[in-house]
Amino acid sequence: RQFEASVHESLAIYKHVSVRFVIMHTLTILFLFIVTLFFYVYSRLKKSRRYFRDAGIPYIEPHWLFGNLKDAVLMRSSFIVELQKLYEQFEPHRFAGIYNLFNRIIIIRDPEIIKRMLIKDFSYFQDHGLPASKNVEPILNNLFNLEGDEWKNLRIKLTGTFTSGRMKIMFPLVKKCARDIKPVLMQYADTPEGLEIRDLCARFTTDVIGSCAFGIDTHSLQDPKSEFRQMGKRIFEFRWQGVVRIVVPKLPDWCIKYFSLQTFDKKLSDYFLKCVKDMVKYREENNITRGDFLDILIGLKNHKEMEKLKDHHEDADLAKFMSQISDKCIKSDVEMTIELMAAQCFIFFVGGFEGTSAALTFLLFELAQNPHIQEKVREEIISTIESNGGEMTYDLLNKLPYTFMVLQETIRKYDLNGSILIRKCGENYKIPDSDIIIEKGTSVFIPMNGIHHDKKYYEKPNEFYPEHFTKEAISQRHHFAYLPFGEGPRVCIAERFAKMQILMGAIYMIKDFIFELSPKTKLPLRFLPTSFGILPVEGGVWLKCRPYKA
């Protein structure tokens, strides 16, 4: 027995030592692997960081890991602010190079080069190059994310979606939502603190998009906790999965699915898919039409109408290209499935909810800061409506020149689309009047925020100055120095709708109420760096309001 005990003790010691040896050996190998990987990544990064220097492209020495947008990556400053700084530092160069983590990016500062890229040489820069896995996330099969022939075919199919005629049909739906604002504002009239105006504007745009894109009366103005409103807010919530997709855009589908790395929460995309599916079924079974965006998609699904290119383009190169992709579309049509319809409604919601609510918020904020401008806008609105017997119509929107100048100035100063246009170079491209080649696959940034705040193009770039958009001022400025909706074949097709939505919200608030700054608004406005939304303001934008009495 003593012998057996001794053997067992020896075996126990051996096992203990063996386990410790295996653990130490494994940890040593792991440590060496991590160190080797670190030095490999470091050496590759150092080598890639010499690219712009070797190519003769203007650049600023980057951080070895984070690149030129370190503070934005670490969320110590907003992406818009950091890109604005870089734009100014690269003066007077027409273009320059920056590094963002592992990616090389070309920044284009010259409006003439931008025009070439977006119009004449569009075939080189037709894709956004954003991370999208169409098989795992069908909701991303939308006009914004699609690339190549898939985008071309769908773009032509939707060409007639937002014509002036379509806008007139949808106008009553937008008008109804705008009228619903007044009872809500009356609840806050003459209160000492007023209300957080961004939330009200977001509820208004939610109702508009819900009505025009999904055919749903969401009642967000009356009920801020409505399901549709809450789902809309979740789209712009921070998700670490979204950060991973941006940092590593070319993940395989199995990896995205296995690790749940979808850009949007699956419950969110399933919700919008169900909304569209249920509404399409209801309309088809009951033969209901409303003349809205969803009706157009239903018509395309059922082949009741074939969209043809009727648009009149001022630019001959653009008109020629649109005709070419129209011919391709006829040869290779795209089937409008329920999933594809839901994807278009979803991107319509994303663009129409966040961007337009932000624009309406800052328009009201600037009018509250500039009472003389607010009064001039109010007088124009009231006199124009009274000249039409007191009835607001779609055609009257074109008879409000000063109000439209205020809108244009708002979306110059506070960029509607998040400060940049992004394009991916599809083939090696020689920058005009230079020897520089942009290599295939390289991302190209067009820094709208920088251009929109450049004193070369705007007399008072950091002030709210509607006179930037007088006919004379516009004629003296390069056309591509103002790009809130993009330009060329990939211009935002809902531009008319967005402007109508913002104007109608502003008209029905300004004609009935006087707005002033609330003491709860922190000046100057500070934009939060930790949100994916468009220009989120620390503490919110608070305004006081009181009924206007003629």
UniProtKB/TrEMBL annotation:
InterPro entries: Cyt_P450, Cyt_P450_CS, Cyt_P450_E_grp-I, Cyt_P450_sf, Insect_CytP450_Detox. PANTHER family: CYP9F3-RELATED, CYTOCHROME P450. Its cofactor is heme. Belongs to the cytochrome P450 family. It is found in: Endoplasmic reticulum membrane; Microsome membrane. GO terms for molecular function: heme binding; iron ion binding; monooxygenase activity; oxidoreductase activity, acting on paired donors, with incorporation or reduction of molecular oxygen. Keywords: Endoplasmic reticulum, Heme, Iron, Membrane, Metal-binding, Microsome, Monooxygenase, Oxidoreductase, Transmembrane, Transmembrane helix. Pfam families: p450. It is a peripheral membrane protein. One of its GO terms (cellular component) is endoplasmic reticulum membrane. Coiled coil: none annotated. The keyword rRNA processing does not apply. This is Cytochrome P450 6PZ23. The chain crosses the membrane at residues 21-43. It comes from Maconellicoccus hirsutus. The keyword Heme applies. Heme binds at C492.
